[in-house]
Amino acid sequence: MTLETLDNALDRYLAATAQLGSPVRELILPLVNQGALDALRALDNVTLSNELIAYFRRIDGYNYEALSEQDLFEPSFAWGMEALSVDGALREHDQLQFAITDEAPNYWADGFLPILSDRAGSVVAVNCISSSPTFGAVYEMTDGVGLNRIASSLTEFLDAGTAAIVQGFIRYDDGMLLPEHPRFLLEAGPLYGDSPYFARVGKMDTQIVDWH
């Protein structure tokens, strides 16, 4: 996966969100301090893929001055969730470590790094475990359920999001990019490679563990 591919996928996705009426393309900040990534590299069991590095160089949270000027909260970036800055990803990672327990060893996995959050217990994360068969894949950690794979890579996740917008599976409403349920669950799976997230239709409270 080339960095150009990730950048192009991100450009296509942000253009699609703008067509829906979302202001997120104008409110996202690029990473200014490249050294901030060193804190993520220092995490135990976390290996940053080139694709994830390219993503964070383009997406480092929101321009809060612009948000204030427009009297806006953080608009959702994707999957109905807000984009995390590099510092925000680090904080979410640290806060989620408590969820690794003997009773629920797969609810959250050490070596996964959040990139999106709904601020209510669920995140979208990238598998940063270099030895994992799904290294670089994108997962949702659903509050009360745990991790399930959405897409095989960030580029696939973004391109599927673009296609979902174009095909009418996602709408924009008051700052939120939201899936059209139940259509999204029932019909959008092929856009995301029929990943485990969509394989659970009718049993969304279950988990498919595939990263070991």
From TrEMBL:
It comes from the Bacteria. InterPro entries: Knr4/Smi1-like_dom. It holds the Pfam family SMI1_KNR4. Residues 36-159 form the Knr4/Smi1-like domain. This is Knr4/Smi1-like domain-containing protein.
